[in-house]
Amino acid sequence: MAKMGSAMNASTPWFRVDHDGQTLRLTAGGPWTVYHAVSVDAGLRAIVPNKAAVAEIDASQIEALDTTGAWLLLRTRAHLKDAGLKIARFEYPESYRPLVGIIESEHLVAPAEVVTHVSLGTFLERLGRSSHAVLILGVGILGYLGRITIEWFKTIYAPQRHFRFTATAHQIEQVGINALPIVGLLMFLVGIVLAYQGADQLSRYGLDILTVNALGIGVLRELGVLITAIIIAGRSGSAFTAEIGTMKVNEEIDAMQTMGLNIDDVLILPRVTGLVIALPFLTFFANIMALIGGAMMCYFQLGITVPAFIRQLHEAVNVNTFLVGMIKAPVFAYVIGMVGCYEGLNVERNAASVGKLTTRAVVESVFLVIVLDAGFSVMFSILGF
Amino acid sequence: MTPEPTDSNQPIISIRGLVTNLGDRLIHDHIDLDVRRGEVIAIVGGSGSGKSVLLRSIVGLMRPQEGAIEVFGEDALAYDETALRRLQRRWGVLFQEGALFSSQTVAENVQVPLREYTKMSQELMNEIAAVKLAMVGLGEDAAAKFPSELSGGMKKRASLARALVLDPEIVFLDEPTAGLDPIAANAFDELIRNLQKSLNLTVFMVTHDLDTLRSIADRVAVLVNRTLKVGTIAEVMRDKDPWIQDYFSGPRGRAALGS
Q1: Residue B201, min C-alpha distance to chain A (Å)
Q2: What contacts A329, CB < 8 A, 6 or more positions away?
Q3: Which residues make Cβ contacts (< 8 Å) with residue A366, sequence separation at least 6?
Q4: C-alpha distances in angstroms, B160 versus A151, A359, B169?
Q5: Cα separation of A207 and A250, whole Å?
Q6: Structural domains counted in chain B
């Protein structure tokens, strides 16, 4: 114990219990402080009255006493009293009277419980609660989707009153133009990886040239828009939640409302509209970058020259392939923007809530994007595109 | 509680020639300050005058550009991690907004230093937390609550309980009464005064509150023009500096100080 109190006193606390007929005598000494309490705590709890009727507590040899030590003395006294003993003496150094006084004056309260019990019941309760929460969340998002759609129609109906051109242009720059480098680089790499893997497999059957088909259809129909949407969900969906959430924490949203500003017009629609405009362009850019990456890999790996690549691509894909991919972009953008704003408005007035809901917004929008993509695939296969 | 200083007049905190720049703005220009053991010293000054910066420099959250800070006679600016940790256990800090850990209950918050620095049983930690919470005037129902469920005054009390859990010799209070209603602020002043007397604490606080100054501060240090003017309220009030005159002799100052 001495090492724990290196800054304090080097000795350790001690106590002794003597039975003298009807009298139980507790003698204590040494430093009774928070750093040493552990060495006497269990022993003090274990004191048994052993048929004694009177207790004497003599702590006058204590060298140092702090709140913890004083509590141990008072607790022991209460423990003996509860066991039916009469406290005949309770002595401690005079200089600690104010300290003991302040703890004594607070009547001995029930210990502050730290609850950590886990049972099947609590597990089921948690399961039920989280299922319920997911359901409520789904209903909330659906309701919000409807509301934003109505607001959007209002904007189309009376653009001069509801549409904020500057804010929307700013959002297009934020979510579209500023995302060009990251989206471009990532999709270029995706193109390289796809072409490499395709070439690896198809060249075994001598079908090297079909790598171009696989790449073109894969990127244009599915991967271009899907990966771009996922990047944007992580980059801009989270930013929407964090921005709006921080404004909520600072009461900026409340301030706007008291000034008669419409939150939907000022904050939500510019973001959602900006994203809906920007994402198709980003997707187009992403498709081109992926094809460039793929073409490069085809040239180095398979020796397919650029003109040959373009000729093969021309045969493999038609306008429909391209449009099937592009048509998804505004839908994904709408969902990402809406979920980001919705979770931002759900933020409570504390900083932890911003982080929690930002994470949730990204998870939800990526989830919804992939679910919608699956839905699109089913729909297009039924329609025969 | 602690080894008595060999010389009881030796200051518990001693600052010499402290220079602090924030960016290219000079905040403190060679300031000196001695805090005596067992006193309540209040740092006052206009917004942005560097009161909190001074507090943060002493507790090691910021490094001054020049100067020396000694706490308990030890160099608080030394780069020795272990020595600094040892110093930090001997003081407690109450931050402006309480800075309670939001993911833990009040009782768990109070137990954090115990869990970190002692090997106590959970049972004893629970008892100590309850004692500390009772000392700062929080009932047993507060212990199981999360910080987000507490009012501003209760948060400060809970945070004070956490700052006091290792029985520090110094407590640093950053704007202890800011954001509290006058009744809660008076009660908090009284609480600090009582605890300071019974636990023999040295209190170093940054405040704006003239009522707090009058009711609990033994000495006042005013930060004006990047330097400190230290003395009792009466002494400092005699200073001719325009800011000090405005502060103590403005309507609020007159009301609080009754002059």
Answers
A1: 11
A2: A225, A228, A229, A279, A280, A282, A283
A3: A230, A233, A234
A4: 49, 33, 14
A5: 61
A6: 1
**Cβ atoms A167, A272 nearer than 8 A:** no
**CATH number of the domain residue B116 falls in:** 3.40.50.300
Number of structural domains, chain A? Answer: 2
Q: Does the beta-carbon distance from A35 to B167 stay under 8 Å? A: no
Our measurement of the distance from residue A335's CA atom to the centroid of its chain's CA atoms, rounded to an integer in Å, reads 20
Edge-to-edge order in the sheet of strand A54-65? A14-20, A23-32, A54-65, A86-91
Question: Contacts of residue A348 in chain B, CB cutoff 8 Å?
Answer: 148
For residue B215, give its domain range.
38-59+85-257
- Residue A75 tokens, joined: 């607790």
* Complex-level ipTM: 0.77
Which stretches within chain A are classed as H helix? 38-45, 67-82, 97-105, 120-157, 159-162, 165-175, 180-202, 210-217, 224-232, 238-249, 252-258, 263, 269-302, 306-316, 319-345, 351-383
**Cα separation of A109 and B140, whole Å?**
7
What confidence category does residue A9 fall into, taking pLDDT thresholds of 50, 70 and 90?
very low
Interface test with B, best of A34, A38, A95 (most B CBs within 10 A): A34
A210-224, A358-372, B205-219 — which is least confidently predicted?
B205-219
Pair A66, A178 in one domain: no
Given an 8 Å threshold on Cβ–Cβ distance, is A34 in contact with B166?
Answer: yes
The torsion angles phi and psi of A371, rounded to 5 degrees, stand at: -60, -45
Q: Does any domain span residue B26? A: no
Residues of chain B with pLDDT under 70: 1-9, 258-259
